[in-house]
Amino acid sequence: MPPARGDHEARRADVSEAVWRVLAAKGLGGLTLRAVAAEMDASTGLLTHYFPTKRALVRHALVVAEERTSAFARRTPEAEGLASLRAALLDVLPLTPGGAAMNRVWVSSWDASLADPELRANELARLERWRGRLRAHVVSARERGELPEETDADEVTASAAAFTHGLVVHALFDPDRFPPERQTALLDGFLRGITG
Amino acid sequence: MPPARGDHEARRADVSEAVWRVLAAKGLGGLTLRAVAAEMDASTGLLTHYFPTKRALVRHALVVAEERTSAFARRTPEAEGLASLRAALLDVLPLTPGGAAMNRVWVSSWDASLADPELRANELARLERWRGRLRAHVVSARERGELPEETDADEVTASAAAFTHGLVVHALFDPDRFPPERQTALLDGFLRGITG
Q1: Per the database entry, where does the chain bind DNA (chains A, B) (predicted)?
Q2: Does residue B89 surpass a pLDDT of 60?
Q3: Dihedral sign computed on CA atoms, order B129, B131, B132, B134
Q4: Which of A13, A82, A151, B16 could be disulfide-bonded to A146 (CB atoms 3.0-4.6 Å)?
């Protein structure tokens, strides 16, 4: 007999939670039905009910990662201009264990995303949405005179996004050389560079 | 009868070549004994002779990637100072199909490297060696008066390395929005920011 609908939904939430724990601990490359089943103390048979293929599991994992990331984003106070750009970039850096886990999941997902046209298109769209949000802060900073009038918003946005993601990677590999204070100082140095 | 030593060496070079082609086409996540065997038109049985485990294959793949990357590095002419820093950073960007393949391999390797202590230590050391080479250019630029006297070489080096790696990732996912000329322009914009 298939489980009742309420049970199914509850179990689905359990599955998502287990998927997230595996992702945060092992990265996307370590995500297997077996690892998720072990995390739930369940059988891999149960898991195949939700994920008939490895690809289905990976796709679900990236949906879970996106939900967690949206929920994680700091409710930035009503900052505007350069302060809001800084807050948005700080939001992305691995300044806390939770932020490091989040970033580790995304960095580990690039392998699969570069290899799969659908996942690649999703990641490309995700990066573009992120740059879109950053761009609004850049434009606001320029309007407030915090960035030079001649600032090219697309270029500064692309540059800030690249800088921040590269710093994410280096800090993930080398947390001892890139503690939170240094990440913040490097970001502030970068921001001084763009204010001209 | 085991193959003669010369055969063995020649076959090993064939294996490395096949490993590299699989890496460049599918990333580290797509690297399997079966894929390498197919690329060589050989049996997976032959491959297990070289790589008894998946981990042995991944370790060899990263050695191959390191060799290819060293061989790929542009023989930068005798530039010094800021010009040499710029040349060294341009060397890393995916400005050509070969550069894109190289970068794709490294970005795809981060999943496995973050999950495996030994691979992680290797990648950490590789990043640190790279920053060490960049730092020499930064110091030379400061000595030549191309960077402000008060430039903190470690900070500018870390910042330039982060910026460049982040740009690599964005350009890999979005080659249409990040063609070579734009990557170069973004790098030049970044360099203007550090010259104060």
Answers
A1: 32-51
A2: yes
A3: positive
A4: A82
pLDDT digits (tens, 9 = 90+) for A126-140: 999 999 999 999 999
Which positions ≥6 away from B4 have C-beta within 8 Å? none
Handedness of CA A124, B180, A172, A179 (dihedral sign): negative
Q: Alpha-carbon distance B124 to B126, whole Å?
A: 5
B10 band by pLDDT with thresholds 50, 70 and 90: confident
For residues A88 and A86, give the distance between their C-alpha atoms in angstroms, rounded to a whole number.
Answer: 5
Judge whether A166 and B157 are in contact, CB under 8 Å: no
Locus of tokens 């900052």: A79
Quick one: tokens of A187? Answer: 């970001």
Q: Do A163 and B165 touch (CB under 8 A)?
A: no
* Residue of chain A whose Cα is closest to the Cα of B114: A173
CA angle A58, A62, A68 (to 5 degrees): 140
Residue B141 CA, distance from chain mean position: 24
3-state secondary structure of B1: coil
Where does the pLDDT of residue A71 fall: very low under 50, low under 70, confident under 90, or very high at 90 and above? confident
Q: Are A88 and A133 in contact (CB under 8 A)?
A: yes
Residues from chain B that touch A107, judged by Cβ atoms under 8 A, are 110-111, 114
CA A114 – CA A11 distance, rounded (Å): 31
Tell me the mean pLDDT in the region B155-174: 98
**What gap in Å lies between CA A174 and CA A172, rounded to an integer?**
6
Give CATH superfamily name and number for B5-67.
Answer: Homeodomain-like (1.10.10.60)
Fold assignment, A73-194: Tetracycline Repressor; domain 2 (1.10.357)
- ipTM for the whole complex: 0.92
Q: How many CB atoms lie within 10 A of CB B41?
A: 7
CATH (one of 3.10.450.50, 2.10.25.10, 2.60.40.420, 1.10.10.60) for A5-61: 1.10.10.60
